[in-house]
Structures are given as C-alpha cells and as structure tokens.
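Weekly sync, protein design subgroup
Attendees: M.S., D.O., the rotation student, P.L. (late)

Item 1: inverse folding check
M.S. brought a backbone from last month's batch and wanted to see whether the design step gives back something sensible before we order anything. D.O. pointed out we never logged the input encoding, so this time it goes straight into the notes. Structure tokens as presented (146 positions):
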C-alpha cells in the first residue's frame, strides 16, 4: 500500500480569489459541504440580493428551507458575523453556514452561544476551510466545522 505525505496548501494556490474562484466552485460542488455537515443542500444560488447587499450563496435544505452561506478567506471578523445575521433575518433562513479559513476563538464562542440560546429550529455553523496536498497521491480540499 502506498502512503502519501500530507501538507497544508495555501487556499490561494487553488482558488486565487474568494469571490471569483472559490464561491463559484462551492456553488458547483455544494455536495462537498453537504457531506461534511451531514445535511443535504439543493439548488445553490450565488450572490443572492438582500437590499443593496449580496449573500454569497443561498441554498435550500431537504425541507426546502433557505440556508445562507457566507464565505471568508482569512481570520473571522465581526463584519461577516453581522452579515450572517443580516442575511438570515432578511431571507427568513433558519440555518446559517459561515465558512472561514481562520476562525477566532471569540467567534467560535459566539456561534456556540447562538446555538445554545436561539430556538431549536435555528442553527449556526462555523466551518473551517483547509486545503491539503497528498504528495504522491492527489490534491484535495477538506472542510471541518465547529
């Protein structure tokens, strides 16, 4: 059996630009996120308008309920947390997924708090996005969530 060596890869080696490269890739490959979170997503729509703002992706779960996805390369910040809450409210979403490459402990705590204190039918996910290369085998992106 051949075993490859794993090394982390800067996301920008795979997707040069979050908005122009990663988000379209995620829209076309939404099942990768679905499998990682153990949920199904249907029909992803990119740049869903919310007034003068645009949510990165709006998709639907198995029950045809809207799910908002906000993506962020880099450290998590208050701006993106605010975007998630704004999009959820205006798009009547019960589920929000925040994909980030470097979630701060404070934002992990905030998402955990929201999950503990909001009604049971509302869910927040903070997904850590990483890319790895397996030397000698294949290159693959992986996601983790808290």
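Designed sequence read out in the meeting:
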């Amino acid at each position: 059996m051949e075993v490859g060596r794993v090394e982390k890869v800067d996301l920008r080696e795979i997707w040069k630009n979050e908005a122009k490269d990663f988000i379209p890739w995620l829209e076309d490959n939404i099942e990768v996120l679905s499998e990682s979170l153990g949920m199904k997503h249907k029909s992803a729509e990119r740049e869903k308008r919310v007034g003068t703002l645009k949510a990165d992706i709006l998709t639907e779960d198995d029950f045809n309920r809207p799910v908002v996805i906000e993506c962020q390369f880099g450290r998590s910040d208050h701006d993106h947390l605010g975007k998630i809450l704004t999009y959820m409210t205006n798009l009547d979403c019960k589920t929000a997924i925040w994909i980030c490459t470097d979630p701060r402990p404070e934002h992990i705590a905030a998402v955990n708090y929201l999950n503990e204190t909001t009604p049971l039918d509302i869910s927040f996910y903070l997904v850590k996005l990483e890319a790895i290369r397996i030397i000698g085998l294949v290159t693959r992106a992986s996601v983790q969530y808290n």
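Discussion: The first strand starts at residue 5 and ends at 9. Helices lie at 11-14, 18-28, 30-37, 78-91, 105-117.
Action: P.L. to compare against the previous round before Friday.
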